[in-house]
Amino acid sequence: MTYETYEPVAGPAAGAEPGPWRVAIExxxxxxxxxxxxxxxxxxxxxxxxxxLATARRTAFEYDPPDPWSPQGRDVFRDGPNGxxxxxxxxxxxxxMSVRLxxxxxxx
Length: 108
Description:
By secondary structure, this protein is mainly beta. The chain has one helix at residues 49-62, and strands spanning 21-28, 37-41, 73-78, 83-89, 94-103. A five-stranded antiparallel β-sheet has the order 2-1-5-4-3. The protein starts with 20 loop residues before the first strand and ends in a 5-residue tail after the last strand. 17% of the residues are buried.
């Protein structure tokens, strides 16, 4: 039996346009709080994919979500051409967040 494999490389390659691009941050909301996940989409729009990706990379290293309350360190991983997975070690638990580029396609 074979299974399809998900490859997180679909989407625009680095340097690809059109855009405009915005940086989105997704993280868990303080344990059992509701809603369970918070998504923040930056208001700055980038015409250039490379500039947007540089901002997302900086955000992955610098943004401090509410958990953990006592961060001990973080590992940042490239997750395809448009984003980063961030694993943050806390004093008693490990948390993660996603920082990626998004392109607004419209509102219904």
